[in-house]
Amino acid sequence: MDTIIFEGVEHLMSRKSRKSVLVTGGAGFLGSHLCERLLNEGNEVICVDNFYTGNKENIVHLMESPYFEFIRQDICFPLYVEVDEIYNLACPASPIHYQFDPVQTTKTSVHGSINMLGLAKRLKIKILQASTSEVYGSPVVHPQTESYWGNVNPIGPRSCYDEGKRCAETLFFDYNRQHNLQIKIARIFNTYGPRMHPQDGRVVSNFIVQSLQGQDLTAYGDGAQTRSFCYVDDLIDGLVKLMNSSDDFTGPVNIGNPLEMSIVELAEKVIQMTGSKSKIIYNPLPKDDPQQRRPDISLAKEKLGWQPATDLDTGLRKTIEYFKKII
Ligand code: NAD
Ligand code: UDP
User: Fold this and answer.
1) CA–CA separation, 197 vs 209, rounded Å?
2) Which ligand is nearest to the CA of 239?
3) Whose CA is nearest to atom 44 of ligand 1?
4) Is the beta carbon of 220 within 6 A of some atom in ligand 2?
5) Mutate-to-test residue for ligand 1 from 71, 86, 89, 158, highest number of ligand atoms within 8 A of CB
6) Is the pLDDT confidence value at 139 over 90?
7) Is the N or C terminus of the chain more exposed, i.e. has fewer CB atoms within 10 Å?
8) pTM greater than 0.90
9) What is the predicted pLDDT for the residue at 14?
């Protein structure tokens, strides 16, 4: 069409080509990066968050965009919006945050997922769940493939998170089988980067903040336990690729960086990169802390053409720069 006669028509046309995407937990660490990416790609974004662990600073720069809308709400209560896709990220993610109010953590994963699945069912739209490597618990299969059912304590201090996320996966698959809903499940492994909360107790944020403030770095246990750390931009890229993957692909699919290292190795790296004089000290290991964790990402490579692109030094450098500015 060459000429647009009515203002209203122009508005409707641009709306048609612009997808409207709901991001729950959009004011958190990962959610804020996802909102940013979706806006940059020309989508309209509705971010829902109750600021339980997220905050306004993470999204204040997005509020300038007319295509960004924020709704302050707990997803445990039903939500009525009209959108084309849902990314369900709402849930506290660090052990100290999810253990602070464990009942609310389970509610967010279970009631919250039911509400978001109900919304997706009414609108007949795709919904993606931010699941976690914690569904594998303390894994006895290494590295972890999606076919592994896990080794999870159902009654321990981590269970509110692990079992909540496992139940959410069950709900997603039952909505898929029972209601033909299009679902996508990402099993996210440890991710780091700018906008991590400085007091979330996670190992990357703790070690960087401790190094920058000249405090000792607190390795838990003997520090020989391993994790595999993925930079946030890579992770977000994996989530978007999963959402856009072929209709018949539901996952679950591991999204993480297979580069595995011990906690002591990470501490040494952070000390070296910050030029800190801090030392490593050893504190008790939290209960049920997994000994090892590394994703097998063959499925993500095959189905999504995805693999991480950021090396640890580059990712840590950007994260250190961020923490230097905010603490
Ligand atoms: P985060 O704590 O920074 O973000 C979670 C966001 O959800 C916060 O903004 C919080 O306020 C919001 N929220 C929590 N409960 C809510 C509720 N009931 N209603 C509405 N909003 C609510 O955590 P993150 O690291 O950004 O994690 C995002 C998602 O990814 C989580 O679902 C988490 O389980 C998953 N995940 C993250 C990692 C990681 O390494 N960061 C690893 C595995 C899985
Ligand atoms: N950890 C540590 N020191 C810290 C914080 C964490 O040694 O100050 C350890 C923790 O015990 C675990 C690993 O680092 O073995 C990763 O912890 P995090 O809380 O970041 O993630 P998760 O345990 O959920 O993988």
Assistant:
1) 10
2) 1
3) 132
4) yes
5) 89
6) yes
7) N
8) yes
9) 56
Q: Which tens digit of pLDDT belongs to each residue from 85-114?
A: 999 999 999 999 999 999 999 999 999 999
CA distance 266 to 127: 35
**Catalytic annotation, pick one of 87, 161, 175, 192:** 161
pLDDT over 90, % of the chain = 94
Length of the chain, please?
Answer: 327
Task: Give CA–CA dist 186/25, Å, rounded.
Answer: 15
Q: Reply yes or no on whether the pLDDT at 135 is more than 70.
A: yes
CA of 144 to the centre of ligand 2 (A): 18
Q: Is the pLDDT of residue 9 over 60?
A: no
Query: Tens of pLDDT along 52-77?
Result: 999 999 999 999 999 999 999 999 99
Contact 210, 217 (CB under 8 A): yes
Helices marked H in 41-180 — which ranges?
95-100, 102-123, 159-179
Atom 19 of ligand 1 has which residue's CA nearest to it?
Answer: 74
Residue nearest to atom 6 of ligand 2 (CA): 203
Give the closest ligand to the alpha carbon of residue 192: 1
Instruction: Kindly give the distance from the C-alpha atom of residue 116 to the centroid of ligand 2, in angstroms, as a whole number.
Output: 30
Is 161 an active-site residue? yes
| Spatial separation of the C-alpha atoms in residues 218 and 296, rounded to whole Å | 28
Q: Which mutation among 48, 62, 91 tests ligand 1's pocket best, with the greatest number of atoms within 8 A of CB?
A: 91
Quote the CA–CA distance of 69 and 88 in Å, as a whole number: 16
Instruction: Report pLDDT digits (tens) over 291-315.
Output: 999 999 999 999 999 999 999 999 9
Q: What is the mean pLDDT of the chain?
A: 95
Ordered structural domains, the chain, with CATH: 19-326 (3.40.50.720)
* Residue 236 · residue 89 · CB < 8 Å: no
Largest CA distance in the chain: 71
Nearest ligand 1 atom to alpha carbon 88? 32
The two tokens of residue 111 are 């009631």
Of 1 and 196, the one with more pLDDT: 196
